């Protein structure tokens, strides 16, 4: 089954890439953008049909490797 | 350290400062061994482990995040937890953060650029082995070269770093006034763990060993470990 992991910097943690993109957008005329935050999306193809097991396994992957929980939050879409 | 002990410099795929680091400690008369990441144990007479700069595993996913699972890291973590000295320089600092041996995390530099230049540092705490040859307030001219040196720790973590004297180096200008190149919380350039045996810093002391290369201020830093 396919599992999508979205990772983003925690609210309150300044996002340098988001800020740079926000400024770039504003400098080319998009002055209606209030904020921009950049994250990453990891698409996993799992050999697993049980949603509960898949979620448990991907949560462990996020905690151990995919996200740095000091600065990042993640959510898992099954 | 005694004469029979050595300094082990860890080499991951993508590490690129191991020879500079070895050269720096060779200059100080030390026995230095490069240790390949696939090894499972450190040389038994290791006194100091250095994780040098570079781009371990291409900095894929996050800087330092994959290196923490390399075979040798299990023994590095054991060594650190049993009180052995560990120094992480630049990418090595990032590996120590990702491994949980040091608190906090690294973000992209505030200006999103790779920054490579000489920068002044101020000694904030010399009550540790690493900076024991220096005085608090001493200024050091040391190169920095990184894209992810924007050190982050939450307010509570920052409070305990300060309280325990774990902030060892900060970024300043040549007069000692605050000057922050990368957005790091409280201008932090280097920290230690609570027990003061694990150290991480973004600047490269091993690149400041000879005046002909712009500065020899790195000598006084690295000497701390061998006096």
UniProtKB/TrEMBL annotation, chain A:
Catalyses: N(2)-formyl-N(1)-(5-phospho-beta-D-ribosyl)glycinamide + L-glutamine + ATP + H2O = 2-formamido-N(1)-(5-O-phospho-beta-D-ribosyl)acetamidine + L-glutamate + ADP + phosphate + H(+)
Q: Which GO terms describe its cellular component?
A: cytoplasm
Q: A Gene Ontology MF term for this entry?
A: phosphoribosylformylglycinamidine synthase activity
Q: Tell me the keywords, alphabetical order.
A: ATP-binding, Cytoplasm, Ligase, Nucleotide-binding, Purine biosynthesis
One BP term from GO:
'de novo' IMP biosynthetic process
Enzyme class, top EC level, equals ligase
In what pathway does it function? Purine metabolism; IMP biosynthesis via de novo pathway; 5-amino-1-(5-phospho-D-ribosyl)imidazole from N(2)-formyl-N(1)-(5-phospho-D-ribosyl)glycinamide: step 1/2
User: Key word Nucleotide-binding present in the record?
Assistant: yes
Would you identify the family this protein belongs to, as annotated? Belongs to the PurS family.
Q: How does it assemble?
A: Part of the FGAM synthase complex composed of 1 PurL, 1 PurQ and 2 PurS subunits.
Name listed for the protein in its UniProt record:
Phosphoribosylformylglycinamidine synthase subunit PurS
Q: Which organism is it from?
A: uncultured Campylobacterales bacterium
Q: Which gene encodes it?
A: purS
From TrEMBL, chain B:
Is Oxidoreductase tagged as a keyword?
A: no
Keyword field: ATP-binding, Cytoplasm, Glutamine amidotransferase, Hydrolase, Ligase, Nucleotide-binding, Purine biosynthesis, Transferase
Q: What is this protein called?
A: Phosphoribosylformylglycinamidine synthase subunit PurQ
Reaction equations catalysed: N(2)-formyl-N(1)-(5-phospho-beta-D-ribosyl)glycinamide + L-glutamine + ATP + H2O = 2-formamido-N(1)-(5-O-phospho-beta-D-ribosyl)acetamidine + L-glutamate + ADP + phosphate + H(+); L-glutamine + H2O = L-glutamate + NH4(+)
Catalytic residues in the record: 90, 204, 206
Cited Gene3D superfamilies: 3.40.50.880
Q: Which InterPro entries match?
A: Class_I_gatase-like (IPR029062), PRibForGlyAmidine_synth_PurQ (IPR010075)
What Gene Ontology terms describe what this protein does at the molecular function level? ATP binding; glutaminase activity; phosphoribosylformylglycinamidine synthase activity; transferase activity
Q: Which species does the entry assign this protein to?
A: uncultured Campylobacterales bacterium
Q: GO CC terms for this protein?
A: cytoplasm
Task: State where it is primarily located.
Answer: cytoplasm
User: Pfam families given for it?
Assistant: GATase_5
PROSITE patterns assigned: GATASE_TYPE_1
The catalytic activity of this protein is classed by the Enzyme Commission as: 6.3.5.3, 3.5.1.2
Q: Which SMART domains match?
A: GATase_5
Q: Which gene encodes it?
A: purQ
**Subcellular locations according to the entry:** Cytoplasm
Q: Does the keyword Membrane apply?
A: no
Complex formation: Part of the FGAM synthase complex composed of 1 PurL, 1 PurQ and 2 PurS subunits.
What job does the chain carry out?
A: Part of the phosphoribosylformylglycinamidine synthase complex involved in the purines biosynthetic pathway. Catalyzes the ATP-dependent conversion of formylglycinamide ribonucleotide (FGAR) and glutamine to yield formylglycinamidine ribonucleotide (FGAM) and glutamate. The FGAM synthase complex is composed of three subunits. PurQ produces an ammonia molecule by converting glutamine to glutamate. PurL transfers the ammonia molecule to FGAR to form FGAM in an ATP-dependent manner.
Pathway named in the protein's UniProt entry: Purine metabolism; IMP biosynthesis via de novo pathway; 5-amino-1-(5-phospho-D-ribosyl)imidazole from N(2)-formyl-N(1)-(5-phospho-D-ribosyl)glycinamide: step 1/2
Gene Ontology BP annotations:
'de novo' IMP biosynthetic process
């Amino acid at each position: 089954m396919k599992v999508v992991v979205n990772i983003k910097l925690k609210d309150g943690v300044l996002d340098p890439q988001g800020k740079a993109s926000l400024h770039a957008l504003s400098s080319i005329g998009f002055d209606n953008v209030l904020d921009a935050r950049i994250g990453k999306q990891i698409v996993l193809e799992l050999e697993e049909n049980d949603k509960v097991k898949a979620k448990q396994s991907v949560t462990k992957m996020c905690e151990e490797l995919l996200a740095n929980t000091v600065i990042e939050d993640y959510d898992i879409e099954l | 350290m005694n004469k029979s002990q050595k300094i082990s410099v860890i080499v991951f795929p993508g590490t690129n400062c191991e020879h500079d680091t070895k050269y720096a400690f060779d200059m100080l008369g030390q026995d230095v061994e490069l240790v390949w990441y696939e090894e499972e144990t450190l040389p038994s007479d290791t006194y100091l482990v250095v994780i040098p700069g570079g781009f371990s595993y291409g900095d894929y996913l996050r800087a330092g995040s994959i290196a923490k699972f390399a075979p040798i890291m299990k023994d590095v973590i054991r060594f650190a937890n049993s009180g052995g000295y560990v120094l992480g320089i630049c990418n090595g600092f990032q590996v120590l953060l990702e491994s949980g041996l040091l608190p906090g995390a690294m973000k992209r530099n505030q200006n999103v650029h790779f920054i490579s230049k000489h920068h002044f540092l101020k000694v904030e705490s010399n009550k540790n082995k690493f900076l024991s040859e220096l005085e608090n307030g001493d200024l050091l001219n040391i190169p920095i070269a990184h894209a992810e040196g924007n050190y982050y720790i939450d307010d509570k973590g920052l409070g305990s770093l300060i309280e325990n004297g774990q902030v060892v180096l900060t970024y300043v200008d040549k007069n000692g006034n605050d000057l922050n190149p990368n957005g790091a919380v409280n201008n932090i350039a280097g920290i230690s763990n609570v027990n003061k045996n694990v150290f991480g810093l973004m600047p490269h002391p091993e690149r400041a060993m000879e005046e002909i290369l712009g500065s020899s201020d790195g000598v006084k830093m690295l000497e701390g470990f061998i006096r």
